[in-house]
Amino acid sequence: MQSINASQPRTTATALTFSGFRTLFFAVTISGGLIFWLAPHPPMSDLAQHAGQVALLHDLLLDQSPWTHLLRINLFTPYVLAYGLSTALSFLTSVETALKLVLTLAFYGFVASYVMLRKRLVADERLDWLCIPGFFGFAYEYGFFSYLVATPIAMLFLRAALDYAEGPSLRRGITVLLVDIAVFFSHGLLFLFVSAIGGAFLLARYRNDWRKMARVGWPYAPPLALCVAYTFLHRSVDLAPMYPFRVIWSFQSSWMMELLVRLGCATVYPWAIIPDNWTVPVTLLMFAAPFFMGSRWCRNGMAYMPLAVLGILWFSVPIFAMNTAYLFHRFALFIFPFYALNFRSATDGDAMREGFDRRALLTQLAVAAVCIAFLGMQGVRALRFAKESADFEAIAAEVAPGQRVLNIVFSKDSPAAENPVVYENFALWYQADRRGLVDFNAAWFPPQVVRYRLDRLPAVGPAQVAPKPLSETFDWHRHEAWLYRYFFVRHTSPIPDRFFANQDCRVVLVRTVGNWSVYEKQSCHRQ
């Protein structure tokens, strides 16, 4: 950072202050990666489903899975990176440890790749703090494992795409092509997102020369063709509706109200799934920080493109489509980082008011304090969740390994983690840890690396768990409950009388610990 005053004492003091903040930023980033290790099972809703996928793939590759007759391996998927890394590590350690290690590396990789992009755009390094919170916001709490793991590759693609747009060459074009394909096999939605930003770089650079833009756009053609091929080959199965609805565009019936709601979402989702009293003021602080620090708008128009594309998608992408929920929500991870790319540091030549040093320093302290407090809060929640979720470990220890289980959730909220959905898939940790098979199972979904065979799909599918939960619609015969030996039930009050009543099997309570109960099917007249 340049000094803001001509005097040498002030220059030295500024340099020391900056060095201290960089050391603190490095320490906080390292500490952030430890959050994943504070609970045996992190408070991330979908993470249990991903852990179950890795366990299934591990056993299928070894030809040791008792579920081979039900499942198949699907390698033409946008989720190869996350599952490939985790499965490889699972041969050296437990599935749980493998996922935590991959998440830790993904967080460090995201911060490092953001810093690389920021340096390339000569943006204000004092704003690097803004890249930290989003990784532990909406996508973290929902447990979008593959999405989080893909973010460093996506950021590296943006760096390569920027280099190519400003100086096209065969080598750079091949780099863009290969990294874009890597992003495709990391996460399909991120692939579309960053490819659009790459196209925006070309548009910004060659907006007055459309012929050249068409000539230099060749690296984007093969990945686009790959995307089209994937859609075509999976059109009859993967893209067939799995829910009673195809597309959900908005929260509100009025476009104006929808605009306001999505603006509000931008103040919440970088931090959490649900709003809290502090989310709006700290978001305003993050947005105001560059101005209080004396940062200036970047002169490089390329810096505007990531935020511009993000803004368009934030207000135009539906809530649900292609059997995928929370489409625009997960882009909240990029709101603060892409915003920060639009600012450069103040220099000696900039006009400064008296007292600017102190204001900039206090703003940096405030932004750093927010990030530290936020990570600390997530750490405390993880520690509390470790104690709360121990009830599940107790009931899972009561059942035999390698069994089919039906997961029935009456209450998916965790007061300890302050996460309203964290227990929705938590029973899948039995699948990951004890090599069972739990429904509802993500093996239904198109991008999964392990999928149910089409002729062996279980009765409990996506439409049976949404929009109404299975606990409200459960029917012994319709859901073929006789297939399952155990039923894991999470509840905060007694379950309804005769919930498992049927004329085929006797279902008995094995044990209740806290808010978890496990029931076992016994003495069946039909199988």
UniProtKB/TrEMBL annotation:
Q: What is this protein called?
A: Glycosyltransferase RgtA/B/C/D-like domain-containing protein
Which keywords appear in this protein's UniProt record, sorted alphabetically? Answer: Membrane, Transmembrane, Transmembrane helix
TM segments?
21-39, 99-117, 174-204, 216-233, 278-295, 307-340, 360-377
Highest taxon above the source species = Bacteria
